[in-house]
Amino acid sequence: MDCIFCKIANGEIPSNKVYEDESVVAFYDLEPQAPVHVLIVPKQHISSAFDIDESNSAVVAHIFEVAAKLAVSLNLADGFRVVTNAGENAGQTVKHLHFHLVGGRKLGREA
Ligand code: 5GP
Ligand code: ZN
User: Fold this and answer.
1) Distance from residue 30's CA to the centre of ligand 1 (Å)
2) Hey, which residues does 27 pair with through a beta bridge?
3) How far apart are the CA of 57 and the centre of ligand 1, in A?
4) Is 76 helix (H, G, I), strand (E, B) or coil?
5) Residue 98 catalytic?
6) In a 10 Å sphere around its CB, with 0-12 CB exposed, 13-18 middle and 19+ buried, how is residue 41 labelled?
7) Model-level pTM?
């Protein structure tokens, strides 16, 4: 499948990884919107949050565990945000489920 985040997950495309395990990879966003801007991505291809169901939601719980660990290792004790964009109105540009972990500055109400 021609999916950029599948290719990052399997190493075909290089990325600046901060975390990896058997089901998840986390890497720095190419165009950071904050001092810390990491994308946490399931290795399994899931197109968006519209496609989360009982068959694959365990990886989403795991992603939030990874976010909590990264918030410590990336020094985000003052606060962080986790957000996922799904569909056109949300501005989703990459059609592989991903969670933005952002922090390192005071965040506005609109991400
Ligand atoms: P979305 O707009 O779909 O929620 O987020 C996609 C994010 O992926 C954007 O913040 C964009 O900067 C990032 N991105 C797109 N292509 C690449 C890439 O090849 N490498 C990395 N590290 N980030 C990317
Ligand atoms: Zn994919």
Assistant:
1) 6
2) 17, 39
3) 22
4) coil
5) yes
6) buried
7) 0.97
Neighbours of ion ligand 2 (CB under 5 A): 3, 5-6, 45, 96
Does 98 have pLDDT greater than 60? Answer: yes
Yes or no: say if 103 and 73 are a contact pair by the CB < 8 Å rule.
no
Query: Whose alpha carbon is nearest atom 16 of ligand 1?
Result: 30
Exactly one of 37, 62, 96, 98 is catalytic; name it. Answer: 98
Pair of tokens at residue 87:
């569909």
Whether ligand 1 lies within 6 angstroms of the CB of 20 is answered as no
Report CA(76)–ligand 1 centroid distance (Å): 21
CB atoms within 10 A of CB 59: 17
Burial degree of 66 (CB within 10 A; 0-12, 13-18, 19+): buried
pLDDT tens readout for residues 45-86: 999 999 999 999 999 999 999 999 999 999 999 999 999 999
Q: Where are the alpha helices (DSSP H) in the chain?
A: 4-9, 57-73
